[in-house]
# Entry
Amino acid sequence: MSAVKERILGAVTVMNENDAQTLWNLIIQTFGKNWENVEEVSPDDWDLQMLQEIKSNPECHEFVSEDDAMKELGLT
# Structure
């Protein structure tokens, strides 16, 4: 994954619900309104491994404060 995509995902993770809705509306306006036509697929083996890791590895549950995340993402 590119650094830009990682920063976007990180930013979305720390957004409050109103900001996330605003971003979603911007995405829909910018990139089209056909998101409901995106095919839903079942998780593959890699996805299932990641989900299992999240469930079983306590280090996958480490969280930082919103302020620290914003600093790390260069958004402050």
Notes: The helical segments are 3-14, 17-31, 45-56, 66-72. Residues 17-31 form the longest helix (15 residues). The chain is about 60% helix and 0% strand.
